[in-house]
Design brief:
alpha/beta, two-stranded antiparallel sheet, 10 helices, 15% strand, binds NADP nicotinamide-adenine-dinucleotide phosphate
């Protein structure tokens, strides 16, 4: 079954599930990304700070899949928020990837202590106008950060990539993104270190639908209208994580998984107001 797509507020579209590439590096990293492409992923999520843009570019060439059948997303690091640095940074990403355009580029973190994320956003707006980036977005932005950049530029991000998993379901931020017409992308969509695979609502839904707990969580993401980017270096899990369009969760199942959210559910270091990503 093909992967459904989400249409973004700029008229472009993204597959409803993408592939996370952190921390895949080196020859093993290239192989894992080639395998992901062979297994059907068409959206690859990298970042300058993952130090694997070269590997992702190499994997794209090795896969033999045409450039325009793939979507490549990268992220601007905190040290490059100043306007000229941001422009240079994106050119560097393109060079490492060996591509002449990016499908999506995100401001990786707002780094509010430095207070230059609006400048970074202006640079992305200009790069989109120049055609070097097809869609632009942000990551880890709160309602206040979003309001600031929209106010200063008149341009609303197409995507806000935020931590989102059953222990941190982001009820408020999902509503904020939706109100603004921004697609929510989910990082650590399986919960990473504390994958809630054995929680009763997840296990029960897996048994009821004859799927794995990981598939239940990723299907829950899709039911929420979020776009998860699970990472796996394992080909069988890569396939499993993409195979979530042959069943659906009931409203009650979705609600029970969302109810696993807890105040301390955020992964360590993930607070956008204090995290400093250089
Ligand atoms: N914007 C941001 O600030 C930010 C922050 C963090 C992450 N990200 C992005 O989000 C992507 C995904 O997040 P993540 O890697 O932190 O967490 P994740 O995708 O939730 O979890 C990845 C972990 O789960 C395992 N796994 C994957 N599929 C599985 C399955 N079906 N069953 C059991 N275990 C499974 C993987 O192991 P194996 O590899 O061994 O299969 C890996 O250890 C990253 O790769 C990155 O691209 C963005």
């Amino acid at each position: 079954m093909g992967i459904p797509t989400y249409t973004l507020n700029d008229g472009t579209s993204l597959p409803a599930v993408g592939f996370g590439t952190y921390p895949l590096t080196g020859e093993d990293g290239v192989s894992a990304v080639v395998s992901a492409i062979e297994n059907g992923y068409r959206l690859l999520d990298t970042a300058v700070n993952y130090r694997n843009e070269t590997e992702v570019g190499e994997a794209i060439r090795r896969s033999g899949i045409a450039r325009d059948e793939l979507q490549v997303a990268s992220k601007l690091p905190g040290r490059d928020h100043a306007y000229d640095d941001a422009i240079r940074s994106v050119h560097g990403s393109l060079e490492r990837l060996g591509l002449d355009y990016l499908d999506l580029h995100l401001v990786h973190w707002p780094n509010p202590s430095r207070d230059r994320y609006a400048e970074a956003w202006r640079a992305l707006v200009d790069l989109r106008e120049q055609g070097l980036v097809r869609s632009i977005g942000v990551s880890n932005f709160t309602e206040a950060h979003l309001a600031r950049i929209i106010d200063e530029t008149g341009v609303t991000p197409s995507v806000n990539q935020i931590e989102l998993h059953p222990y941190f379901p982001q009820v408020q931020m999902r509503a904020v993104n939706e109100r603004l017409g921004i697609r929510t992308e989910s990082w650590s969509p399986l919960g990473k270190r504390q994958a809630p695979f054995t929680e009763p609502p997840v296990a029960a839904a897996a048994a009821a639908h004859g799927v794995t707990p990981g598939q239940v969580i990723l299907r829950w993401q899709v039911e929420l209208g979020a776009l998860p980017i699970p990472k796996s270096a394992t080909p069988a899990r890569q396939r499993e994580n993409l195979d979530v369009f042959g069943f659906a969760l009931s409203d009650d199942e979705v609600a029970a998984i969302t109810a696993l959210g807890r105040p301390d559910g955020r992964l360590f270091g993930g607070d956008p107001d204090t995290h400093e990503e250089m």
